[in-house]
Amino acid sequence: MDLLSDILESIRLRKLKAVIYPKITVSKNLWGIEVPEDNSSQFWRLLKGTCYLKVSGQTAVKMEKGEIFFIPHGASHQISGNPQNKCVPAAQYGKALRNGTPLFKGDDEETVLMGGHFEMDPSFRHPFIHSLPKLIHITAMQSELCFWLNNVAIFMNEEISDEQAGTKLILARLADIIFILIVRAYLNQEKIEQGFLMALKDERISNSLKSMHESPEKEWTVEQLAITAGMSRSLFSKEFKRAVGETPLSYLTNWRIIKSKEFLSATKENISEVAAKVGYQSEAAFNRLFKAKVGVTPAIYRRNTIV
After folding, report:
1. Which end of the chain is less enclosed by CB atoms within 10 A, N or C?
2. Looking at the domain 3-189, which fold is it?
3. What is the pLDDT of residues 105-139, one digit of tens each?
4. How much is the pTM?
């Protein structure tokens, strides 16, 4: 099993929505845009020129042509020709662009950016999301090495530049792919030593995670999961908690809830069948746990999510 694909598929099923912004074209130096903090995950790719990106609380980073910056948790940030420039709110820049009076236009060399954001379902809680850093920087060389990331970004730029029938849908699908490729590129380029991303790279811990993902209905014990990892019970419990941020059985319970949400939204199976598929033979016990975790009963959740 591909653990990352399994987790990302769950994110997609929880209505991951991608939005692509109009291409930003500004004068080389005299510009600055401030993006406020929100619940979305923004990404930027520099198509021409140079600029700086500064995430709140961190130092400014210079952005070169072809590089990609990803802000997973929607931290407020500034994009500018110079870190000392005064920045206007993104909403003000967007309004001027829509009115046909774009800001920061001049006679000097242009800087061109493409960007967008991913809106994740706030109810989707998984340590993978929490373990992503405040800022992910994919360098031009690394994006070139990641063949598909580079080419999808180029295709997106062509669609933005020449809007045709179906462009909006194509951009949304390409943005989904960009999200996955950014995460893959980050995993490949970084030496990750803690958090859930380390667990994905640790063969022992990932084996136990795969076992839970493949068979959430099984009555797993810590001892059984330790065997799948090839570790003693005590060492496994310690290493799993250190990497994932919660105990093995806590992770199992939370993953079962995630899967049960999928089954409730995407199938017509009755509640008892869904409960059995995620490891609960007692429908009453499943109902109590689901309500404690989600805030509503499985039946109400299903009514609220099926369109």
Report:
1. C
2. Jelly Rolls (2.60.120)
3. 877 778 989 888 887 776 677 888 888 888 998 87
4. 0.78
Mean pLDDT computed over 160-188: 76
Residue 14's SS3 state is coil
Among positive and negative, which fits the CA dihedral 39, 45, 49, 53?
A: positive
Q: How many CA atoms within 13 Å lie on the side-chain side of 286?
A: 24
Q: What percent of the chain lies above the pLDDT cut of 70?
A: 91
Residue 256: pLDDT band by 50, 70, 90 thresholds? Answer: very high
Average pLDDT of 276-285? 95
CB contact at 8 A, 26 and 105 = yes
Which amino acid, one-letter code, is at 23?
Answer: K
Task: Return the structure tokens found at 45.
Answer: 């790719």
Q: Which two tokens stand for residue 96?
A: 């001027």
Q: Assign residue 290 a region: left if phi > 0, alpha if psi is -120 to 50, beta otherwise?
A: alpha
Domain assignments of the chain as residue spans, ordered by start? 3-189, 197-305
CB 54 within 8 A of CB 61: yes
Domain 197-305 has CATH 3.40.50.1100: no
Q: Are 63 and 52 in contact (CB under 8 A)?
A: yes
